[in-house]
Amino acid sequence: MIKSLTPTQMAAPFARYAHGVLDPASGLLLTSGQLALSVDGTTPIGAQAQADLIFHNIDLILQDGGASRADVLRINAFVTGREHMAGYMVARDAWLADVPHLPASTLMIVSGFTRPEFVVEIEVTARCPA
Questions:
Q1: Helix axes 47-64, 85-95, angle to 10 degrees
Q2: What tens digit of pLDDT does each residue of 84-107 get?
Q3: Angstrom distance (rounded) from CA 125 to CA 82
């Protein structure tokens, strides 16, 4: 049975969806696109600070599913302008610094998100350990 993943240590989803899902039969874990929203409802300023918070929250989702960043197969990231690419990449590279393999990765520039203060959104696909 598919398991919804919504860690209580992070802000609740904006609507009726889970932050992630785990399919135990296949071992696949997929996150929803994550935006930089703290538990207290604040959003940090700048792409690097937002990406750092998002990756922290992705760690929580992975842990909730029994995985870690070492199990990530793919990262899909979205920024609202070229000026945000460097900050995002600094945060991504730091998050992956101790990972024994590098996942596939896509970075796209988009026109915007649900609120103007959000400049980064990230989703990952992972394979949970057997």
A1: 40
A2: 999 999 999 999 999 999 999 999
A3: 24
